[in-house]
Design a protein that fits this description.
The complex is a heterodimer.
Chain A lengths: L1 E10 L2 E11 L4 E5 L6 H8 L7 E6 L2 E2 L4 H6 L1 E4 L11 H11 L4 H14 L15 H13 L5 E5 L7 H16 L3 E6 L2 H7 L2 E6 L2 E6 L1 H8 L4 H9 L3 H11 L1
Parallel strand pairs in A: 3-8, 3-9, 6-7, 7-8
Antiparallel strand pairs in A: 1-2, 1-4, 4-5, 9-10
Chain B lengths: L1 H15 L2 H35 L2 E6 L5 H9 L2 E6 L3 H10 L5 E4 L3 H6 L6 E4 L5 H28 L20 H9 L2 H27 L2 H5 L5 H33 L13 H11 L2 H14 L4 H11 L4 H9 L14 H11 L6 H26 L7
Parallel strand pairs in B: 1-2, 1-3
Antiparallel strand pairs in B: 3-4
Helix pairs in contact in B: 1-10, 2-8, 2-10, 8-10, 8-12, 8-13, 10-11, 10-12, 10-16, 11-15, 12-13, 12-16
Classes of the chains: A alpha/beta, B mainly alpha.
Chain lengths: 251, 392
């Protein structure tokens, strides 16, 4: 269960996230949708405590990420945007490193790593060094690494970036499996179709603010657009106040 | 604690498999100093032996004018070449590099000699060439020797004691021991030891910050339920480990090289056996933490591997500054200098190389102060590792 209330984060003069609130319950896949630079990654970085919010509260299973970052991270499996592997280590060693860092040792660690290798179907290249892996292989290993401690909450920041059709499909299946296991999955993307194909509920972010939430049908209805892409464009187009703000900036 | 261990062994394994790191840490870094040293010593030896043992080549113009001088020179260790040329042609020959030393005996020589006036000879040489300078000195020495021999005989023939012309004699006592002279050359070894340590840890220091960020593995690492200070301590310790291995390789390589370089020929003797290697290791290794933290601090400000690498070049020069100060002022080990890292290591290694006993108190102060500096710098490194800007 992930809960975000009135999150705000600035970097110097730049407002990355202005006001974001949403909830991601267990057993559901929530899609965080928005154009590039909308504030998706910043929101996710706050959740996995790489950065601290200026104001607002983010909780994971009721734990405030600003107050108890270590505990929050224990409950969380996070796949940051463009996550990289250790190229000199094998896929298995990469996963085992994170297992050990989560306190799993010896047989428990071996078992957890093997389970991940089976879940993500990476046996074939599990014992090869990750140098030269395809983007799809890398993403799977990175995901296995993020899930090895069996977290209840999973954050995936643009995981389908750079994946081909087959890899994207296989990633979707894995995400659905996570949902079946009762996990709370937060999935970000800038592709409407991607999110529509997978998520139970969509949170659309534009200019650091939540502009719309709901299922695909809800969003079609709210925007009055049948076509998904049109609906997305309509949802992220600045509102009246936004246009006025922009006009003010030009003047 | 178990986290630190996990990080430490992961970094060691990761970097042991990286050929670039291995080459720089365990081959180029540690072997550069000793090989450089061996090359310099061999060059010095070659020049010294060239200058003294080979017969001296002198081209003579007007040899017939001074048969007795020629006989004298031939009785010394020389190869004379008689030329039929003018003095101007002789100058041209030296300028062109055809001859190194040309001795011109003027046609007036015989007359001046017979009248017991100073007989004039001209030595043509190019003093800007170091090896010629030495040969010129030898040639002058021979000619003067002949001159003073004949002069003494002339005085004796007139019933005068030749020693009357020497109002003063200088006795020189050279207190430099052979080992002390060696220390001059060996003094720079202390920097090579520190350098090899820094080179050994450089890639890890970059890898742990700028490198991880560039590869995209930093952010996943930060999602782990482990404090950033713990992460950095594990990484710093792995860096220190690589630095220590580099240091021990450099020391052993140096000790081995000494066995092959015939230092005795230069009047030097250096006793650098296992015991000295161990002592040098103990007094130098505390510098590893300083170097590791310093490089990590610098690397944590850079955006990528390349940028970090270019800053490292400057960082590696920082330890030279105290050493240069020590060398210029010819500082001797004292308690206050032991508080200065890199200078204290330099002074202690210098003592060790000179074959002098190391003052245990000095060594303890040096180790202690280096560790304190190291801990302070690593706290700074941890501080920077906690910044949000670390993610870039």
């Amino acid at each position: 269960m992930i809960k975000i209330q009135n999150l705000r984060k600035t970097f110097g003069d730049v407002v990355a996230v202005e006001d974001v609130s949403f909830e991601a319950p267990d057993g559901r896949i929530i899609g965080l949708l928005g154009p590039n630079g909308a504030g998706k990654s910043t929101t996710m970085r706050v959740l996995y405590t790489a950065i601290k919010p200026d104001t607002g509260i983010a909780t994971i299973d009721g734990i405030d990420v600003s107050q108890s970052p270590l505990e929050a991270r224990q409950k969380l499996g996070a796949l940051p945007h463009g996550a990289g592997l250790y190229q000199q280590l094998t896929a298995r060693e990469n996963i085992a490193y994170f297992a050990n860092m989560h306190g799993l040792t010896g047989a428990a660690s071996k078992k957890a790593v093997q389970e991940m290798i089976e879940l993500l179907e990476i046996e074939e290249f599990a014992d090869r060094r990750t140098k030269g892996f395809s983007q799809g292989q890398k993403t799977k290993v990175a995901l296995a690494r993020a899930l090895v401690h069996g977290p209840k909450n999973v954050i995936l920041d643009e995981p389908t970036n750079g994946l081909d059709v087959m890899a994207t499909r296989s990633l979707r299946q894995i995400v659905r499996k996570l949902k079946e296991q009762g996990k709370c999955v937060l999935f970000s993307s800038h592709v409407m179709q991607e999110v529509a194909a997978l998520c139970d509920e969509i949170v659309i972010i534009a200019d650091g603010k939540v502009s719309m939430t709901g299922t695909t049908d809800d969003i079609r209805q709210q925007t009055g657009c049948e076509d998904l892409e049109d609906a997305f464009v309509s949802a992220i187009t600045p509102s009246e106040t936004g246009q006025e703000r922009q006009a003010g900036a030009v003047q | 604690m178990s986290h630190i261990k996990t990080i430490f062994f992961k970094e060691i394994r990761d970097n042991f498999r990286d050929r670039r790191t291995m080459l720089s840490a365990l081959v180029f870094g540690p072997l550069f100093g000793p090989i450089f040293f061996a090359a310099i010593i061999s060059l010095t030896l070659k020049q010294a032996s060239d200058g003294n043992t080979k017969p001296l080549d002198i081209a003579i113009i007007g040899a017939d004018n001074a048969p007795s001088l020629i006989d004298y020179l031939e009785s010394r260790d020389t190869e004379l070449e008689r030329l039929d040329a003018t003095i101007d042609e002789g100058i041209e020959m030296v300028k062109a590099g055809d001859e190194e030393l040309v001795l011109v005996i003027s046609d007036d020589y015989a007359d001046q000699w017979n009248d017991a006036r100073p007989a004039r000879v001209t030595l043509i040489l190019d003093n800007s060439d170091a090896s010629v300078v030495r040969k010129g000195r030898r040639a002058r020495g021979m000619i003067r020797g002949y001159g003073s021999q004949v002069g003494s005989m002339r005085l004796l023939a007139r019933g005068v004691d030749p020693s009357i012309t020497r109002a003063i004699t200088i006795d020189e006592v050279d207190t430099s021991t052979p080992s002390g002279r060696a220390a001059l050359v060996l003094g720079m070894m202390s920097y090579f030891f520190l350098f090899s340590m820094l080179a050994g840890g450089m890639y890890l220091a970059i890898d742990t910050t700028a490198g991880e960020r560039e590869r995209g593995s930093l952010e996943p690492l930060l999602t782990l339920p482990v404090k950033r200070s713990t992460l950095l301590i594990g990484k710093l310790l792995a860096t220190c480990f690589f630095m220590s291995v580099s240091l021990i390789i450099a020391l052993i390589a140096f000790a081995s090289v000494l066995g092959f370089v015939p230092l005795q020929q230069l009047g030097m003797s250096v006793d650098f056996g296992p015991e000295q290697v161990l002592t040098a290791f103990i007094v130098t290794v505390p510098f590893a933490l300083i170097g590791a933290s310093l490089m990590t601090v610098v690397a944590s400000f850079t955006k990528n591997f390349k940028e970090a690498q270019s800053y490292m070049t400057f960082t590696m020069l920082i330890p030279t500054l105290p050493i240069v100060v020590a060398a210029i002022n010819n500082l001797k080990p004292s308690l206050e200098w032991m508080l200065v890292p890199s200078m204290s290591q330099h002074l202690l290694i210098l003592d060790l190389v000179k074959g002098e006993a190391i003052n245990p108190l000095f060594a303890a102060v040096s180790i202690g102060s280096s560790l304190v500096f190291g801990v302070l710098l690593s706290l700074i490194a941890i501080h920077f590792y906690k910044r949000e800007g670390l993610l870039g």
